[in-house]
Amino acid sequence: MNFTKKLIAVLALVPGLVFAAEGGFPLDRAPERSDMASLQNGAKLFVNHCLNCHSASAMRYNRLRDLGLSDDQIRNNLLFSADKVGEMMTTAMRPADAKAWFGAVPPDLSVIARAKASPAGSGADYLYTYLRTFYKDDARPTGWNNMVVPNVAMPHAMWQLQGIRTPKMEDAPDPHEAGKTLHRFVGWNQAAPGTMTATEFDTATADLVAYLSWMAEPAQGTRKKLGVIVLIFLSIFAFLAWRLNESYWKNVK
Fold first, then answer.
1. Three-state SS at 19
2. Between the CA of residue 222 and those of 59, 71, 227, what are the distances in Å?
3. CB–CB of 215/113 below 8 Å?
4. Which runs of E-coded beta strand occur in the chain?
5. Which of 63, 87, 187, 206 would bridge with 82, disulfide CB 3.0–4.6 Å?
6. In this structure, what DSSP letter does residue 83 have?
7. pLDDT band, residue 253 (cuts 50/70/90)
8. Torsion sign (Cα): 104, 107, 112, 118
């Protein structure tokens, strides 16, 4: 049994954990980061580390105005794969090349934060855990593997920020079979440091995930505000209808 299968077998025996659908690894809760500074930093990380291989073909660069960015800021700092601010966020990588290099065409990330939502957690939880659980694996073609998606084709795009890590395992007795030993994941070994500390990388990843969540539905902030207004209106209308009903029927016995 290889390392990944052993890990999944062990985690499956731990009660009370919420598991990701693909690899069986427990999902971490993604921090709530919806302020403009976080979303702008997430957009910068997206175009620098994700847009090289992945596209976001349902998103135009000019929609970044909603994050408080001007056309000049977008053009000078974020416009790497297009000529005009009004163009879509596409990648220059040809699908045939991606297939040859990675074995699969990288998926479009326009609505990835919504597509990965499941009973195991929100799409943000999935992405936050996935992006933070890459580890060095020389047996893989890219040299990287992932806890959430074992044998993933994607390399660790932000390894220079996080550094190189390997999983730390320990032997533990199998609670269901006497005399059998299982390998249990207990943490990480930092084989080489990155340009960020662990806390800084987690914060940056949270910003990137916040941007991906925003990109999946840019109007979600407006939708939520309108929802609150509609509920207040319906509450007032229901109260007035109740009082009017009382007035109409007060003399009926």
1. strand
2. 17, 22, 8
3. yes
4. 56-60, 88-89, 134-136, 144-146, 163-173, 181-193
5. 87
6. S
7. low
8. negative
Scanning 15-94, the segments in alpha helix (DSSP H) are 36-45, 71-77
- Quickly state the pLDDT bin for 229 (edges 50, 70, 90): very high
pLDDT tens figures, 157-182: 999 999 999 999 888 887 777 778 87
Which pairs with CB-CB distance under 8 Å and at least 24 residues apart come from 83-86? 85/60, 85/61, 86/60, 86/61, 86/62
**How crowded is the C-beta side of 62, counted as CA atoms within 13 Å?**
5
| Single-letter amino acid code for the residue at 157 | A
Domain positions in the chain: 3-218, 222-253
Q: May I ask the CATH architecture of the domain 3-218?
A: Orthogonal Bundle (1.10)
Query: Cα(169)–Cα(187) distance, rounded to whole angstroms?
Result: 7
- Of 45, 80, 47, 39, which Cα lies nearest the Cα of 161? 45
CB atoms within 10 A of CB 228: 9
Hey, what long-range contacts does 214-222 have (CB within 8 A, 24 or more apart)? 214/34, 214/39, 214/42, 214/67, 215/46, 215/56, 215/59, 215/109, 215/110, 215/111, 215/113, 216/110, 216/111, 216/112, 216/113, 216/114, 216/123, 217/111, 217/114, 218/59, 218/63, 218/66, 221/34
How far is C-alpha 243 from the geometric centre of its chain's CA atoms? 48
Q: How far apart are CA 1 and CA 4, in angstroms?
A: 8
State the chain's mean pLDDT as an integer.
87
C-alpha 252/C-alpha 249 separation (Å) is 5
